[in-house]
Write a structure and sequence with these properties.
9 helices; 35% helix; single chain; alpha+beta; globular
Length: 257
């Protein structure tokens, strides 16, 4: 999450232009990799736990801490910084070498110095859609904006290989917009933990899907079930559908008669 003091409050479209480059000769290289709160998306965790060759629960235990959102009661995972004085990212190899997991870095690192937002838009037919927008993050220490390389936000996204991350994150970010209604009971502990499991602990969620009898309750094709057995992306996408159903946001699943 970005400090609001460094966020420029203008909503930007993909054609917006800016100058930026980050490389080892920039004097601020890797300064943005310390003492920062990075909320992880489910796809971030999937890529990182596979990069490290560990299970999702092991990654969560070793590399994250949790926060509860006070508006939705959702439980979110944040990347745990180091215990050194600078609180450096654990994946920062050195101030000179940079990121040790660069090709699998979280999406917020991938987009920097651009931030992403999501808004609900109600059309003339009263149907609600979600639209993404962008904004600049301008931290005082960052000298990357002084570099001559020119981009549009669209070309920056292409250069940072963020398209697949965005496709995976869009449905989950729609869940983030859910809020507890004023005066209503907060999200109960069972749903809170299922939200966390389906979002972040994919190995445990697989066990839940196939061992709890969950699949006996819904109309799900054999092809999709087989895909979930072998493809973590397919399992994660089912998890997002399941959460939308569980949280009464959309009828994404059909109960068996």
């Amino acid at each position: 999450m970005f400090n609001t003091k460094v966020v420029q409050p203008s909503r930007l479209e993909p054609e917006a232009k800016f100058k930026f480059r980050c490389h080892p000769k920039v004097p601020c290289f890797t300064k943005c990799c310390s003492n920062i709160d990075i909320m992880l998306t489910p796809y971030d965790v999937l890529r990182l736990k596979n990069r490290l060759g560990i299970t999702s629960d092991k990654f969560i235990e070793d590399h994250t801490f949790m926060r509860i959102d006070d508006k939705s009661n959702h439980l979110y995972a944040y990347l745990k910084m180091g215990s050194d004085e600078e609180k450096r990212c654990p994946f920062l190899e050195s101030a000179e070498a940079g990121c040790s997991i660069y090709t699998d870095r979280p999406v917020s690192c991938r987009y920097y110095p651009i931030g992403q937002g999501l808004v609900k838009v109600e059309g003339e037919d009263k149907q609600t859609t979600h639209e993404e927008f962008y904004f600049f993050v301008r931290e005082e220490h960052c000298k990357g904006y002084d570099e001559p390389d020119q981009w549009t936000i669209a070309s920056w996204r292409d250069d940072q290989d963020s398209e697949h991350y965005d496709q995976m994150n869009l449905e989950w970010k729609q869940l983030l917009m859910r809020r507890d209604l004023p005066g209503a009971a907060k999200l109960d502990e069972n749903k809170q933990m299922q939200f966390f499991m389906a979002s972040y602990d994919l190995d445990r969620f697989r066990q839940y899907v196939f061992d709890s009898g969950l699949l006996d309750r819904f109309e799900i094709s054999e092809d999709e079930i087989e895909a979930m057995r072998t493809d973590e992306v397919a399992l994660m996408k089912f998890g997002f559908r399941y959460l939308k159903f569980l949280l009464l946001l959309e009828e994404t699943l059909q109960l068996k008669k």
